[in-house]
Amino acid sequence: MRKKVGKEEKRLTMAIRVVIMAVASLAVGTAWVDAEETTGVPTAEPISRFQLVVEAPTFVKEVVEDIETPVVLSEQDKEYIVVKTEWGEAVPYDDWEFDPNSYENNAALGNAVVIVRGRGEYAGYSGTFGFSIKKNIGFSNEVTLGTVEYRYTGNEVKVKPNVKHKGRTLKQGVDYQLEYVNNVKAGWATVKVVGMGDYSGIAELDYEIVKADAMFVNLKRGRFKIKCINLLGVTRVKLIYEDPTIKYKGTREVMKVSNMQCVSKKTFYFTSEANKGKRFFVLEGYKGKKSLGTIKKLTRMVK
What integer is the mean pLDDT of 264-288? Predict the structure, then answer.
């Protein structure tokens, strides 16, 4: 039997309904508010369900292993997500949660969906949150380089790492892309393997760009030899001697490389008056029959 309501209680109930209807005009969906708590009258009134706006651009849930059980979001994941009411009011961290029964497409790599629901004073609020499930190549120890030393060329030295995940070879441009840092000058450079597609995360590998060099090795009584070092990838060096005073230019010696260095067998020693002046020594590197270009051009003034 319905409880008889007095005039004052009727006025209060009508006022509550007016306020609910005014606020509800801003939202969509349906929800229910029970007026019994405020008036003591057991009645329910349908109103609009308030929407939550969930902000987390390109949120990725990263996994290391193959997916064996559905992927769900955790309390820690909430730290990267901002939830607001549709009129811009921030919802406190403890006043919303992921609905555990609302996940869709969370049992495989790709895009998944979950419902975010308000709680406490935000009970009845909800919003849809989409996120991606990807494997993180940054956790993998299968991203490697064949060597850490590469020859200086004067241009960008772009190394190609071997990228695998659980034994599967990944494809550049499909599963990952490469980015380089400090890869022109001699010294240490970095290659970044950046996941894409079904993969996320970054794996960084350092490598050294080695620049060949040449120098005079002084001996006693004005004599000297020529030494080359850091001959990465070089199998032999041609020593070309240029003497502008006698118009001579040609291969003086072919030096074999051992342990990335070589020293001329020829000892240079100028004593005659006719040979005074500037002398040029050009060192050209080879790998087999292929020229790798000039290593260095040395100049020496003989008094």
Answer: 77
